[in-house]
Design goal:
Chain lengths: ~180, ~130
Amino acid sequence: MTSSIVDDSGFEALFREHCQGLVRFANRFTRDVPAAENVVQEVFLKVWRDRARLQDADSIKAYLYTAVRNEALKYVRHADVERRSVPELKLTHAAVLTPEEELQNKTTAEFVHDAIERLPDRRRLIFTMNRFDRLTYVEIAQALKISIKTVETQMGRALAFLRTELIQDKITQACRGKSGQEGL
Amino acid sequence: MRDDMSDPESSALLARYLSDECSEEERSQVEAWIDANPAQAAMMEQMTKAWQTREPTTPASDVEAMWQEIGRRRESGPDRVRTSKPGLRLLRYAAVLAVGLGLSYVLSQDSPAAPVLSSQEQMQTVSVAVGERS
């Protein structure tokens, strides 16, 4: 962020820079793109209202992710009152397949997505903010109001988990004579 | 560096390496570790792939339409912009003050508590010759 968010052009630049990324981020909670877009619009209206205060914020990017997460969680709570437990964050499955088909059709990306879904909520949130939203450790720490050390630890655990999962997959694939198919 | 999956320090360092969050010194340390053993190199290659995996795609949003809607909502309702020039703002305060004073005057006229005008103060019609003042 170079220009000030107090003026129109700075605000517009901020919106255009982060809009799409924030919609993707919000959609991981809402699992509904129009709802995610609404969430992002609400947050930017809030930013506009509070811009005088926010121009001094350490990281406006971190602020945006905090605000979008809060707003998205508010939406999820409101939309799914009757549903008992709502996973905080979930990646979309492309199709419903039998376990056999799933294994045969799985690409590296799908495999990683499945593994990410099995991470505990907080770890998955931190991992996806770093890998998908391209937030630095410092920005994640600011956005989630946690220490950088915690981010480091969680990312390390995510790596250890992916390592174990990928090795497991390789063994399974080898047993089925499909080793080397995806280079995993 | 230990290659022990249960060693949280090593995992955290490797994750920082993959996320480009480590110092030059740590970078060389990890690279030496990768070069030292083909199994470690293979594992890190896998992890690099995992690290670079993209999110399942979501349809692209119409950013322009979203921006237009924000523009509309920004200008209406309680979020109205307050970025007018100081002079203009003063003028606005003066206008509010003037309206307020005017209103209070009108109300005081209607109010029963207002003093009743004496007969002398009541409006009179005075006829005068042309060119004279009353």
